[in-house]
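User: Working on a comparison across species. This one is AB hydrolase-1 domain-containing protein from Pedococcus aerophilus. Can you predict its structure so I can line it up against the others?
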Amino acid sequence: MTPPNRGLIGLGVGLAAAGVATAAGVAAGRVNRERTARLSVLAPDGAYAHVPDHELAVIADDGVPLHVEVDEPAADAADAAKPTIVMSHGYTLSLRSWVLQRKALQRAGYRVVLWDQRSHGRSEVADSDSCTIEQLGRDLHRVIEEAAPEGPLVLIGHSMGGMTVMSMADQFPEVVRQRVIAAAFVATSAGGQNMMTLGFGQFVGRLLGRLGPRFLARIGTQQKLVNTARRVGRDVEDLIVDHYSFASPVAQHTIRYTGDMIMGTPLSVMADFLPSINVHDKQSALEQFHGIETLVVNGMQDLLTPPDHSEAIVRLVPGAEHVVVEDAGHIIMLEHPEVINEQFLELVERGMRASAEHIDIGRKPRVRRTVTDLQKRRRVAKARRGSSRGGRSA
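Assistant: Here's the predicted structure for AB hydrolase-1 domain-containing protein from Pedococcus aerophilus:
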């Protein structure tokens, strides 16, 4: 029998937790209504809609089907000399995270290949033992073999996708040396340090690294209950997604779009990948990108892969260009799409020019630039002023 005082304490804790959850829900609802009313201009209807030109299933070397999409340039913009751009998404996301970049690259006349990493998006859920960064590198190689078998390449990876690119380069260096003219590492890490800090520091990070997989695996057995909780507490979920994904105002539609990707990933899959991410170390693989035009991008307020992770990559790749975006979090390509689109287009142009003119990239000085998305700031300020005037006149 439970002692009375322990039962009262438990009841008190339960009521307190319920009160905190209710208060959080009310606060989150208020924030979300503000986004819906004022910031929808940042993600208008149809902004994230896209239909690929081709879809295919690429079979990984262990038999897992991988979902792949291809965008072809318009006939009047097609140029055989232009590279194919292969984009790899991050942990708990999907190829949908690149929707605004794929549109911009296709409009500029490039062929774009995107894929869902194993157990993510529309790719098949794989055995937990195969959910490693090494296997993802082999998966990317298979995608290239099937969807971009010849011609120059540009490799772009976000977060875990950047690790995938490093892993592929480590295992298949000839592909990088012979075909890759440019690479972009976005909000990612070469490893060699604890990856799971979540902004709480290394001590808590090490604790999360040990306990996170077991915790996720345990609650992953109750996925239906988790899905029900999501529907009930959607406002709170949005607040959490916003905090860890972005560092500037975004539209409510962007929060939901991101949250649906993250929480659409089964908790068991999250648990499967965490151990490999936490011990990831591909610093030596970056040697394969020496002499290749390389862009490293991160958000200044990124809680998952802070700027020091990007700085470590830059130190290991001579001639790499480092761009730090102010007021930006981890999902930077949805938060500041115009900035990222511009950086990618400039990177590809630099890579084509370096390849054609045999420029010695290693002799370039390292460049570190801090970029402020002034266009977005103006749009947010204008939206808020317009909403305020509308509220006063109502």
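For your comparison, note: Residues 7-394 form a domain with the Rossmann fold fold (CATH 3.40.50.1820).

User: Helpful, thanks.
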